[in-house]
Amino acid sequence: QVQLVESGGGLVQAGGSLRLSCAASGRTFSSNAMGWFRQAPGKEREFVAAISWDGGSREYVDSVKRRFTISRDNAKNTVYLHMNSLKPEDTALYYCSATEIQWVLPAPSAYAYWGQGTQVTVSS
Fold first, then answer.
1. How far is C-alpha 77 from the chain's CA centre?
2. How far apart are CA 45 and CA 107, in angstroms?
3. Contact call for residues 58 and 79 (beta carbons, < 8 A)
4. Residue-wise pLDDT tens for the chain (124 aa)?
5. What string of DSSP letters covers 59-106?
């Protein structure tokens, strides 16, 4: 059974930092692109960042560029999202996801596997 388990969310003040982790089990994703999405109450799920199978290609939504960094450790079957300079508008449930392809794509429909999410709340 394939599982993606996120951790690292929490409550942080504006300007603070968090590191989200996503540990995969049940299969290896070392040949697959992985990504992070988020969903705030009353809003649609939004693409945040994605990383190719080898880490050589990364893509971000404009609102998080220069603040968030996606990385991966294929030996640990884990992907990370380092979030700096957090803003109240970053408050959302953050989901880890994995594709069946090597290259990054921003569309949720490209991702076959999803975690349950970890809550990030940024206070002003």
1. 14
2. 10
3. no
4. 999 999 999 999 999 999 999 999 999 999 999 999 999 999 999 999 999 999 999 999 999 999 999 999 999 999 999 999 999 999 999 999 999 988 888 999 999 999 999 999 999 9
5. EE-GGGTTTEEEEEETTTTEEEEEE-S--GGG-EEEEEEEESSSS---
